[in-house]
Amino acid sequence: MLEVAELRKAFGDVVALDGVTFSLQAGSLTGFLGPNGAGKTTTMRAVLGLLRPDGGQVRWKGSPVTTAARKRFGYMPEERGLYPRMPVLEQVTYFAELSGLGRAEARASAAGWLDRLGLADRHGDDVDGLSHGNQQRVQLAVALVHDPDLLVLDEPFSGLDPIAAVTMQEMLVERAEAGVPVLFSSHQLDMVEELCRQVVIVDRGRVVAAGPVDDLRAAEPVRDLVVGFDQPVEDATWAADLPGARVLRVSTDAHHLEVPADLDLTAALASAARAGTVRRFSFEPPDLSVVFRNAVERAGDGG
Amino acid sequence: MSNGTRTVSLVARREIKERSRSKGFRISTIVVLLGVAALVVLPKFLDSEVTRDVGVVGTVPDGFQAAMQQAAGGDATVDVRSFPDADSADAALRDGSVDVVVDPAGGVITWEQDVDATVDQEVRQAMAVVAIDRNATALGLTDAQQQQLLTPPEITERNLDPPDPDDGTQVGVAFASTVILFIAISTFGGFVMTSVINEKTSRIAEVLIAQVRPVHLLAGKVLGIGALAIAQLLSILLVTLVAGTLADTVTIPEVGVAPFVVAFSFFVLGFVLYATLYAAAGALVSRQEDAQSVVYPVMLPLLAGYLIALSTIGDPSALLPTVLSFFPLTAPVQMPIRAQLTDVPAWQIALSALICLATIAAVLVVAGRVYAGGLLRTGRRVKGREALSSAGEVS
């Protein structure tokens, strides 16, 4: 539904976007990953029309984004974007009206979202009287209040306590299940892995990996090999027999290794069995964090 | 209602609500209104306090008290006290219990330091009346003859130009309205700038611009805060007229309605012009503390125009004030003065207003772009040129 094609943007000598290309499908919850300064926020701003790219295009349902279409987008910026001295309900209602809802409809929707986000008793409070987590909830309500067709969130989880983070996750999943493409940036890779079916990884203004998380993990040339023994085995010298293996961690009940994806598992199991009685033997694609690190490293070597 | 109009009115309504909710604004409005009322009523109390305390060395001559009363006017409180000698009279003069000491025998008028020309005139007149009276009696004139001697000639006055009903009031009103215009434009223009900077620093601008075109945001701000300014000005006017009528210091026929209409129209023009400039200036900075650096260039023409307008209030037809009443950045504070104190042809007022309008149109285009471009750039101060070139596609 949303296509980002060859976006380019430079601020003076600094190249922020160097041909960013990806697309979002209806109902997909997509994690937007990248080191600081990779161009995540700039890309999001270009999608929202907050800055004009030097080149490339953002397309919505096959055509360039119109002002009317943009009114139906929901956006949550990284930094707080709320009026400090304005009551919560009035504020969310105001943003709903700006996006085109009628007064009564806007108020009902604002109240509804605030209640769902656990702010039912804070309607009349000024925003600057709320905790950081509650301000984030109000910010989320602003992004959701007009039932947007596309949801873009910049670091929605930063600074949230675990309870608020769960609420946030539920809302994002729910919107995606309702058919809305959701794009959010984050540095919490484990959470992204758990939450998102697909990710887009950017570095230095370029997409260095994109697609379903499982595919990306499977495409890595390495695997996580975990071997557990019935008695603690002090060292992992047995692993020296495995070609290309690297010992990551030796704990009391298991040895964690990174091995080539094409490892001969039968031979590997035989090597492990020589060190002790094997109780556990798992061969899995690596975590998203490995995918992320490798993608960024490969891009760095290439450039 | 089109989408844009609706957005503008939503933004304007929010500005009005937020301002009128602020305690500072409410208090300052009340203080201003009380101050205006006090200024209007004050002359009443100042005027009513005419007192004349005159010390006389030796016996007070017959008829001096009456002559002094007549000279000072019927409303004045005249107190004439007799002192046995010059020393005691001088002592009373020094301690302030009398304003002036008269020695009728020696023909001396004594002051503590400066001569009060009005009182001096009155005392001399009273002494003359007493002297004439005494001399006439010495000459043996009858009362009727004395009366005849003192009858003044009949004098009528004529004016080549019809007299100004009350020049003092005209100048006073012109002065006051210029001060109020200047304060209102800079205060409410400043509000627009503060509002822009606040939205920028709190990053609300980012959420807003994702939904709303910058030009609508700008228009809504200027209209909303402008409506508040007009409401405040109208209350000032109302208080002036009500308090002035009650205290009998200002009357509408005396001043006329036209000056208010001109002043009001130029306030609207001046406010829109400067508010737009202030908004563009505000979009260039990211912190309230940096506001000073961008506010001066905007403020300077207004301040200069204001000072020149006030310093030439005695001669508003001179070349400089005349030229400045057509220059769009100074016209809002200069034209109302000229229009009130001199006979400015209507076409000149209309021309000046048109020049202002054309300038506003041009400024809206440029400042609107600067505003849109500067709004989303944070960190160091943005240069006007950068802001112009980086306006988002939504502008």
Strand order of the largest sheet of chain A: 6-7-8-3-9-10
Radius of gyration of chain B: 31 Å
User: Which consecutive residue ranges of chain B, at least 5 long each, have pLDDT under 50?
Assistant: none
Overall 3D form of chain A: elongated
Distance between the amino and carboxyl termini of chain A: 31 Å
Strand content of chain A: 25-35%
Count of helical segments of chain B?
A: 16
Radius of gyration of chain A: 23 Å
Structural class of chain A: alpha/beta
Described by the principal axes of the CA atoms, the overall outline of chain B is elongated
Helix segment count of chain A? 10
| Residues in helix, % of chain A | 25-40%
H/E element order of chain B: HHEHEHEEHHHHHHHHHHHH
Record field, number of beta strands of chain A: 14
* Biggest beta-sheet profile of chain A: 6 strands, mixed
The SS-based structural class of chain B is mainly alpha
- Assembly type of the chains comes to heterodimer
Average of the residue pLDDT scores of chain B: 84
Average pLDDT across residues of chain A?
A: 91
The biggest sheet of chain B amounts to: 4 strands, mixed
Distance between the termini of chain B: 21 Å
Keywords:
heterodimer; A: 303 residues; alpha/beta; six-stranded mixed β-sheet; four-stranded antiparallel β-sheet; elongated; B: 395 residues; mainly alpha; four-stranded mixed β-sheet
